[in-house]
Design a protein that fits this description.
The chain is of the alpha/beta class. The protein has 15 helices and 22 strands. Helix 2 packs antiparallel against helix 4 and helix 3 packs across helix 4. The protein binds nicotinamide-adenine-dinucleotide.
Amino acid sequence: MKTLQNSIGGKWENSQSASVRDLVNPATEEVIARYPGGSADDVDRAVDAAVAAQPGWAELPVAQRVEYLTRWATEIAAHAEELAALECREMGKPVALGRTFIDGSVQGFRAAAEEALSYPFAETLPGADGGATTILRHPLGATAVITPWNFPVPMVLGALGPLLASGNTVVVKPSERSPLSTARLFELSPLPAGVVNLVLGDARAGAPLVEHDQIRLVHFTGSVEAGRRIGAGTGGRLCRSILELGGKDPVVVDADVDPVATAAAVAFGAFVNTGQICTSMERIYVHRDIAEEFVDALVDAASTYALGDGHDAGTVLGPLVDARQRDIVHRHVTDAVGRGARVRIGGEIPERKGFFYPATVLTDVDDSMLVMTEETFGPIAPVVVVSSFEEALERASSSRFALGATVYTHNADHAAAAATIPAGVTWINQWQGGGPERLYEPAGDSGMGATGARAAYDAATRPATIHTAPATASTLS
Ligand code: NAD
């Protein structure tokens, strides 16, 4: 069976790591590839390649860098179906769903790259003293992108556009649970050698990459636990980091909305991608006036989420990524039931091959249960009935996470009050709304570092000011 290789300095090469792991298809439990565990030697070689390529890449005119990235985007778009099928094999996502997200991420990658054409890399302003002030935004140098497995291709593309268009080079370390699709992305790259490099493996590759003294920025997306370690590592050596971590997003359902239509929207927010989205709806607060109708409709909607292999057209709910993730999800459900929650649908591990878990609705839930305090990352919809919108808002706001939030209401005052939820992004009446203009920074345990829109360019560059004195100024003053 094939062992996947690293892509370093434009060449495919074997890892120096002695350890090799099996990659398992979560729908069939079959081994589909092998990947290296990762090593510091691999990281050193990849960072050397990124450092060597960086000056030449930064010297290219911006338009030429954007053209390279646009060519890459065109190649990726042409292979979107194949990439979605690889994602399905490695982490279970239904192919059609994967395709939708890959198409969206290619558009985002293109738009983010094109943003470079109007970004002020060099801007001269008249100084207050009659002189001139020029602000240059330099690339940082060699950078690192470390990604999770829940959206393998979109996560890599989402981070790369502004970093590369700004003149940085990158070492990508994808999740060890989804290396296939990222490796294929690299095969499609037309970029000059060393501009993007791929190192495979788990934390044995990730940790030395974070610690490497030539890496000037780490863009990390993943768990809170790993994010804390990475923040400590980059902080210790004063390296910039963007940490996009976990969530426990609330959704508030007000008394004045259509309970059936809103339940369908909430089912989608809780179950799509088998609940493995950082901004999945994981805590549901519904007003008591519509609670019964809402829960009945949510259970009906859950019953339509058909389990299966993501290659089959009828599948809505693929498997969880692996047995470990399924154990976490089932532990949360068991904990809730043990403390008095009621399972309205789902809640049991099906007897079949694959790491499947059904769409599950829980009621009689309280805020102390694991399913309300820890990120579940599975297809679980825990419902809490509240007496007022104000109570819902207060409970929605009391979490150590602060990533996203959604509020369904027709009341303008309530919609305005939704802005008090401490989240990086709050959606009103449309989960996941907004496009490239979305600009946000998570708070609390959900991470730090603003991304989206121009903030991604600000993060990818270092501003420096050159001030030229007015012609009349004394050289000694
Ligand atoms: P994870 O933290 O286990 O792994 C993420 C990546 O970090 C992997 O590539 C892994 O190999 C690497 N890694 C792990 N330990 C490391 C270390 N000490 N040093 C360097 N690298 C290390 O997370 P996961 O299970 O792959 O992904 C799921 C998590 O990602 C969830 O918590 C989810 O909410 C989060 N996530 C967040 C966002 C966001 O935008 N905020 C988006 C997607 C996923």
